Amino acid sequence: MISKKDKIAQTALKLFTEQGFKATTTKEIALKSGVAEGLIFYYFKDKTELLNHLIREFSFIGSMRKEMKELSEMDPIPALIQLGHLYFDFLSRNKSFLSFIWSPEMIQNKDINVKVIDLIHSMSQQINMHLTRASSGSVEKETIELAASMFLSTLLTHFLVGERAPVEFHLKSDDYIKNAVTLILKGLDISD
Hints:
Layout: H1 4-19, H2 26-33, H3 37-43, H4 47-57, H5 60-63, H6 65-72, H7 76-93, H8 95-101, H9 104-107, H10 110-134, H11 141-164, H12 173-187
Helix pairs in contact: 1-2, 1-4, 1-8, 2-3, 7-10, 7-11, 7-12, 10-11, 11-12
């Protein structure tokens, strides 16, 4: 059974996505959640704190803490492939959050931009770690960071294009992830 706090958060995300953050009131969130408005303020100081909670809860790294530990214990190449699958699954489960967090209203919010950039940086650090472990030789830090950025970008682009043109999009996610890992590692001169 879903907790009242989680129901409030899910309802807020739905309303923020549909109406925008500024246009959504705590009264509407309470009404749609089936709770008293005061309960929102019991869990969250204000609507901004509720928004910050959503960003933490729906972040890739935040939602994958257990999996990240397991990945760090795997061989690096299978770990990168598994990380790609986890990222695809995350994107599939959180489409409404992604639409909201990349909406013009949120892009214009400087505080949110800082938080989103921090989350992207955290994701890149995880990938950097696995790429560094996979490296048999010395690879410059900047090169590893670029490769991690390329890995995230290509997976996100593949996901987004697949959402737009699922029938025309022939390469399945599993094959795409494996190919992306192989190409990135070959680019780093790391043989798999």
